């Protein structure tokens, strides 16, 4: 696949990440491609679905398995806006994905080289080709904007609570 194709699919994943953001979830999007066809897509939904496994990657893999009617997702590429966590990296190995392309690194929980490297571990029974940095700045900016907005909302909530307490105290 060419770099332009990688950028095209990463932009697709960024659009999915916007859906997560609109639902108040951490904005991560994932799209699973076989050939030039989408066979699975997902965005973060653990909060809304009350499901700790409802990460963007997991949603895309589940859909891909149903489309292919197979738990092995051979000859596929998974595009994700953020480096996968340990859970998602494990699922990527088990599903036999051929290639992972991600945007932004996740220094705190990334399991494709940042915190640890599940995908490149020599003991794994399947090796996934990993490429990173595709539209990394846009992917990272979406996440940092989201967390900045969330911090501002929490700050505003605390301020409003303090003011309400002061008004209750004075009346």
Automatic annotation (TrEMBL):
It catalyses: adenosine(34) in tRNA + H2O + H(+) = inosine(34) in tRNA + NH4(+). InterPro entries: APOBEC/CMP_deaminase_Zn-bd (IPR016192), CMP_dCMP_dom (IPR002125), Cytidine_deaminase-like (IPR016193), tRNA_aden_deaminase (IPR028883). Keywords: Hydrolase, Metal-binding, tRNA processing, Zinc. It is an enzyme of class 3 (hydrolase). Binds 1 zinc ion per subunit. The keyword Heme does not apply. Residues 4-115 form the CMP/dCMP-type deaminase domain. The active site is at 57 (proton donor). CDD domains: nucleoside_deaminase. Its EC number is 3.5.4.33. Zn(2+) binds at residues 55, 85, 88. Gene3D superfamilies: Cytidine Deaminase, domain 2. Pfam families: dCMP_cyt_deam_1. One of its GO terms (molecular function) is zinc ion binding. Its cofactor is Zn(2+). One of its GO terms (biological process) is tRNA wobble adenosine to inosine editing. NCBIfam families: PRK10860.1 (NF008113). Homodimer. Catalyzes the deamination of adenosine to inosine at the wobble position 34 of tRNA(Arg2). Belongs to the cytidine and deoxycytidylate deaminase family. ADAT2 subfamily. This is tRNA-specific adenosine deaminase.
